[in-house]
Design brief:
Layout lengths: L2 E5 L6 H10 L3 E6 L20 E4 L9 H4 L4 E4 L10 H5 L5 H8 L14 H19 L6 E5 L10 H15 L5 E5 L4 E2 L8 H19 L5 H6 L4 E2 H12 L6 E3 L1 H5 L2
Parallel strand pairs: 1-2, 1-4, 2-3, 4-5, 5-6, 6-9, 7-8
Helix pairs in contact: 1-9, 5-6
């Protein structure tokens, strides 16, 4: 049974990667600051959670996780921030006033409050490179794969630092010749199981409506709209695509949003 290590395995996407890995027969270890499993909805099947090894680690302290990488066949970096505003994750999943949470979501960050835990450069780029370098130095597996959760494109209102940090990480990771690097580029993600009425759900509905209008009414013929109006995708589909790619020993490179949406 091949070992799969997921950094950020209890996060929004990370939990679905762990679940898909267990379902595919992998030995899965999740590393996160808390080391705790995620909270699932009451109706979800939780049997897979007991099969994951949930451990605590600090991404910027390789000694806290390097032993877990030695026998890993694949490592997945599922950490990242969309905004440097530290409150955005709680806002996007909040069930309170949509208008109030949307204003909190868009609130700009204070440059003076940036730390290693809330800057694009540190979380989206440096942590991934550090993890990959540590994996490269410690792994004993043949043809090891490293998966980086990148992004499809930026969109209006989102700081350029977000997409820039993702592309910079891809470039640096591509230079690590001893790893089979895989770059996953999803768009706005939602969870198929969660049906809560929160800001994430509202954004999904808006993006889906805009994409439907662009494709159905305009025929997708306006290039600039096609750049900014992109389909949403479920975390389950992204997770399944990741497992599929790491199981292909010859695959490396970019997996675009269009690739992820293929059935």
């Amino acid at each position: 049974m091949s070992k799969l290590v997921v950094l950020g395995g209890n996060g929004f996407l990370g939990r679905r990667i762990c679940q898909a890995g267990i379902n595919a027969g992998f030995q899965v270890t999740s590393l996160s600051r808390s080391g705790k499993p995620p909270k699932l909805t009451p109706l979800e099947n939780k049997t897979w959670i007991e099969k994951v090894d949930w451990k605590s680690a600090d991404i910027f302290q390789p000694n806290s996780y390097k032993d877990e990488l030695k026998d890993a066949k694949s490592v997945i970096h599922s950490l990242g921030i969309l905004l440097e505003n530290q409150n955005y994750k709680s806002s996007i999943n909040s069930n309170s006033s949509i208008l109030n949470e949307f204003s909190n979501f868009l609130k700009p960050s204070n440059p003076l409050t940036k730390t290693s835990f809330n800057s694009y450069e540190s979380i989206n780029r440096d942590s991934a490179v550090l993890l990959a370098e540590t994996f490269q130095e410690t792994t004993t597996s043949s043809n090891p794969s490293f998966v980086y959760i990148s992004a499809d494109k930026g969109f209006p209102g989102l700081p350029k630092g977000y997409i820039n940090s993702k592309r910079e990480a891809e470039q640096e990771l591509s230079s690590l010749s001893n790893l089979r690097s895989i770059f996953i580029r999803p768009g706005f993600m939602f969870d198929e199981v969660s049906n809560q009425d929160n800001l994430r759900t509202s954004i999904k509905k808006f993006v889906d409506l805009a994409n439907w209008g662009n494709q159905s009414c305009l025929g997708g013929k306006i290039p600039i709209l096609n750049e900014f109006i992109r389909p949403t995708i479920s975390t389950q589909r992204v997770a399944q695509a990741i497992i599929y790619r790491i199981q292909d020993p010859d695959f490396n490179g970019v997996v675009s949003l269009e690739d992820l949406l293929e059935k």
